[in-house]
């Protein structure tokens, strides 16, 4: 989770030319989101962002039966659907009547391509074809429980995107059992599209926060960086481990404290290992990625967590992003050059 500190005027006074930022909050994508614009008073831009979020949710949701991804996962085809736009496309269709090649929207194709790239680069430590497994674990239930091991073992052979290919907007699936879960990358992709919308409308100072996926447009109106804090795992939401100066970057965190429960004294969290069927247990409790594109930060925060401390840091450096990984002893581990590129202040405990 990312927190903002010092984003507002804290002097208690304001000049005649200063205007309060405009902001909107809502529950979207199964999380709390907030968009704040500092250099415009056009509130229609906020409504446009929420509408964009709704349209993409109708494409990327794994559980919404009306979404395009749900229909692809369950092989629901409409041969009459063609030439659709983001506002109307909700159904993939089979190509030339074949059973294994499907035409999908350019947006779903772009997101799945991003996920497949990371899946292959990480040798499957991160795999978007994990839906047969994630559908067994319900971390939002009133009384969540560990799934039956037999069900987990049955799902494991299905959790591989090996053989999946995407050519333009046509995706070929080698098996009827393959199902995708893009929850680890969709919020980042949507945040990037919101940024595109706002920048096109002339916005130069704003913050997009999709459930802790933070994307900064420019800096504060006075030219100083935004202050983004990394939440201290398992602590109050206002407690931070470090505070970073961020201008025009995305900051995304993944941690075991976000969605978790205890059973028989053992903690189970939502970052699942597609090779074992159970949560990763590798001494990490949090990974934060700072990148230009939020979709990259989204995918890499989960991937670097999956890879563990040493390999996670190496993978982040290979991908050209900055990262801070927190181990269970609450020590912060930075990628090479982190402090040279980003001003960061560790918060004393």
- The secondary-structure element order is EEEHHEEHHHEEHEEEEEEEEHHEEHE
Number of helices: 9
Radius of gyration (Å) = 21 Å
Main sheet attributes: strand count, strand direction, barrel closure: 8 strands, antiparallel
Helix % is 25-40%
Number of strands: 18
On the 0 to 100 scale, the average pLDDT is: 89
Q: Order of strands across the biggest sheet?
A: 2-3-8-9-12-15-16-17
Which class of secondary structure composition applies to the elements?
alpha+beta
Could you say which overall geometry the principal axes of the C-alpha atoms support? globular
* Beta-strand content: 15-25%
Low-confidence stretches: 4-16, 80-88
Straight-line N-to-C gap: 18 Å
Please provide a written account of the structure.
The protein is an alpha+beta fold and 349 residues long. The protein is built from 9 helices and 18 strands. The chain starts with a strand and ends with a strand.
Outline the secondary-structure elements.
Elements: E1 2-4, E2 22-28, E3 31-37, H1 44-60, H2 68-73, E4 93-94, E5 101-103, H3 106-121, H4 131-134, H5 149-155, E6 165-167, E7 170-172, H6 186-200, E8 206-210, E9 213-217, E10 226-231, E11 240-246, E12 250-255, E13 260-263, E14 266-269, E15 284-291, H7 294-307, H8 309-318, E16 322-327, E17 332-334, H9 338-341, E18 344-346
Antiparallel strand pairs: 1-10, 2-3, 3-8, 4-5, 5-7, 6-7, 8-9, 9-12, 10-11, 11-18, 12-15, 13-14, 15-16, 16-17
Helix pairs in contact: 1-6, 3-7, 6-7, 7-8
């Amino acid at each position: 989770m990312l927190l903002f500190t010092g984003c507002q005027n804290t002097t208690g006074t304001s000049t005649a030319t200063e205007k309060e930022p405009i902001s909107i909050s809502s529950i979207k994508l199964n999380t709390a989101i907030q968009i704040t614009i500092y250099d415009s008073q056009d509130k229609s831009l906020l409504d446009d962002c929420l509408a964009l979020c709704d349209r993409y949710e109708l494409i990327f949701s794994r559980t919404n039966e009306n979404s395009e991804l749900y229909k692809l996962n369950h092989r629901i085809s409409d041969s009459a659907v063609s030439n659709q736009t983001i506002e109307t496309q909700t159904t993939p269709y089979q190509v030339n009547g074949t059973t294994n090649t499907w035409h999908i929207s350019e947006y779903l194709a772009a997101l799945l391509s991003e996920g497949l790239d990371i899946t292959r680069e990480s040798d499957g430590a991160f795999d978007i074809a994990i839906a047969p497994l994630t559908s067994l674990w319900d971390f939002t239930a009133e009384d969540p429980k560990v799934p039956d091991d037999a069900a987990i073992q049955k799902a494991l052979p299905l959790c591989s995107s090996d053989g999946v290919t995407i050519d333009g907007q046509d995706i070929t699936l080698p098996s009827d059992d393959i199902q995708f879960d893009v929850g680890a990358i969709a919020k980042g992709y949507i945040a990037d599209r919101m940024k595109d919308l706002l920048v096109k409308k002339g916005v130069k100072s704003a913050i997009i926060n999709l459930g802790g996926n933070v994307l900064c447009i420019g800096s504060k109106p006075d030219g100083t960086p935004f202050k983004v804090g990394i939440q201290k795992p398992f602590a109050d939401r206002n407690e931070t481990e470090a505070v970073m100066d961020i201008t025009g970057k995305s900051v995304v965190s993944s941690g075991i404290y976000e969605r978790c429960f205890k059973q028989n004294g053992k903690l189970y969290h939502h970052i699942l290992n597609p090779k074992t069927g159970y949560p990763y247990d590798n001494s990490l409790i949090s990974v934060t990625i700072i990148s230009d594109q939020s979709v990259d930060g989204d995918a890499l925060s989960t991937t670097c967590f999956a890879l563990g401390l040493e390999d996670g840091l190496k993978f982040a450096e290979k991908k050209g992003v900055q990262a801070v990984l927190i181990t269970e002893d609450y020590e912060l581990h930075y990628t090479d050059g982190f402090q040279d590129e980003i001003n960061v202040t560790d918060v004393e405990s």
